[in-house]
């Protein structure tokens, strides 16, 4: 791993966690549950609480500044995702956001309409849609291959017809890691007139995508997994957001930002989300000239993915040598996010507990993907998988620390 595109010392200097004495020697492999927070995020959060912790959008200076800081976050997120600002909605969490979306679509769809869901998803992007069956909506399941854990476009094609009004899928699974071809999914769904909802929670930490290029109508992710505060970000095509029934106060019906997030998070956290975008610009500035991209965010995305592929290669190479584990998802690091789950004779959480004695911070269980584990023949409640998830700030030394710990404990 001598050809990492990003200088790790400079990247890690942008995260206070790496200077925290209590974390010294601890290798963080639970990024799938939430990343470390960038200094840029903390700076914006601290400033808001110190200088503008008042009711925003008022007529006095501190209130005006508070509203401007929040508006800036919406504009910055839109810039990073390559959409207009009216696409951006911020709510308390991705699970809460999709629950509200489910209610909105339940009133928008008609009995007899069909929707497509997957069994590869986190429950937040499948359970809320499956509940629509109680309203007379036909629910069709796009199922993973039980051997590979991956989704096939051919299987999707067999589910699509003129009755389908909604197709929802993960950009990548929080267990499988396989990166699904969102642009192709969107093209197939749009060809039959369906809306496309993509769960980006497990993909976004590895680079915010260009939503114009992906073609999804709704894309959501969690800011706390992308180096920011604990809240959920949704990008929704404005025409669709206007057409869906208002889920907020009736007198806010004309305010697009309020219609699908009736319970927004702390104002300071909204403002602090701009720190995620600030951080991505810092990553782009640290990327070598060989890393291309139309803007800083595409450069950051490319550099982060290249870094992660290089870091994942020795770990996946090692796991392939073990005949006592099952790797869930593809073994090719270029095909997947570095969210790597393995099945062993021992329950995942028990393995994670033993790895902790080697300074490895990981976890085990079903990670809210119960339907997926059941499809793979894995007991989601009493066994689960060991999940090893990392991002671009992980070091080669930490990868080797993990490999040595696995060698000792498997």
Automatic annotation (TrEMBL):
> Would the keyword ATP-binding turn up in this protein's UniProt record?
no
UniProt entry tagged with the keyword Cell division = no
Q: Which residue numbers delimit the Aminotransferase class V domain?
A: 28-402
Query: Which Pfam family, an example, fits this chain?
Result: Aminotran_5
Its keywords, alphabetically, are: Aminotransferase, Pyridoxal phosphate, Transferase
* Domain of life, per lineage: Bacteria
**Recorded GO terms, molecular function?**
transaminase activity
Q: Gene3D superfamilies in the record, alphabetically?
A: Aspartate Aminotransferase, domain 1 (3.90.1150.10), Type I PLP-dependent aspartate aminotransferase-like (Major domain) (3.40.640.10)
Protein name (database record)? Aminotransferase class V-fold PLP-dependent enzyme
What is the originating organism of this protein?
A: Devosia ureilytica
């Amino acid at each position: 791993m001598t050809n990492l595109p990003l200088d790790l010392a400079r990247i890690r200097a942008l995260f206070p966690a790496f200077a925290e004495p209590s974390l010294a020697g601890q290798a963080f492999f639970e990024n799938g549950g939430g990343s470390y927070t960038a200094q840029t995020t903390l700076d914006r959060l601290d400033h808001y609480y110190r200088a503008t912790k008042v009711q925003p959008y008022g007529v006095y200076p501190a209130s005006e500044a508070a509203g401007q800081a929040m508006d800036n976050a919406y504009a910055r997120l839109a810039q990073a995702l390559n959409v207009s600002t009216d696409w951006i909605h911020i709510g308390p969490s991705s699970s809460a956001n999709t629950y509200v979306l489910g209610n909105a679509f339940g009133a928008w769809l008609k009995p007899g309409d069909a929707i497509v869901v997957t069994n590869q998803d986190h429950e937040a992007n499948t359970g809320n849609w499956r509940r629509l069956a109680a309203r007379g909506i036909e629910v069709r399941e796009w199922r993973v291959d039980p051997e590979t854990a991956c989704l096939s476009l051919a299987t999707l094609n067999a589910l699509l017809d003129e009755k389908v009004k909604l197709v929802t899928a993960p950009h990548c699974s929080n267990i499988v890691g396989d990166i699904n071809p969102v642009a192709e999914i969107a093209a197939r769904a749009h060809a039959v007139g369906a809306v496309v909802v993509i769960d980006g929670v497990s993909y976004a930490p590895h680079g915010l995508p260009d939503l114009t290029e992906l073609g999804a109508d709704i894309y959501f992710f969690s800011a706390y997994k992308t180096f920011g505060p604990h809240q959920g970000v949704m990008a929704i095509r404005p025409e669709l957001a206007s057409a869906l029934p208002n889920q907020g106060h009736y007198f806010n019906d004309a305010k697009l930002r309020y219609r699908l997030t009736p319970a927004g998070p702390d104002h300071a956290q909204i403002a602090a989300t701009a720190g995620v975008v600030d951080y991505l610009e810092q990553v782009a500035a640290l990327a070598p000239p060989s890393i291309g991209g139309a803007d800083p965010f595409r450069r950051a995305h490319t550099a982060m993915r290249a870094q992660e592929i290089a870091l994942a290669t020795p770990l996946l190479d090692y796991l392939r040598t073990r005949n006592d584990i099952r790797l869930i998802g593809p073994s090719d690091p270029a095909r997947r996010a570095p969210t790597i789950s393995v099945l062993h004779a021992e329950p995942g959480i028990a393995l994670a507990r033993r790895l902790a004695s080697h300074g490895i911070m990981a976890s085990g269980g079903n990670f809210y993907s119960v339907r997926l584990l059941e499809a793979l023949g894995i007991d989601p409640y009493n066994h689960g998988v060991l999940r090893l998830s990392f991002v671009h700030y992980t070091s080669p030394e930490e990868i080797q620390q993990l490999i040595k710990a696995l060698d000792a404990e498997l």
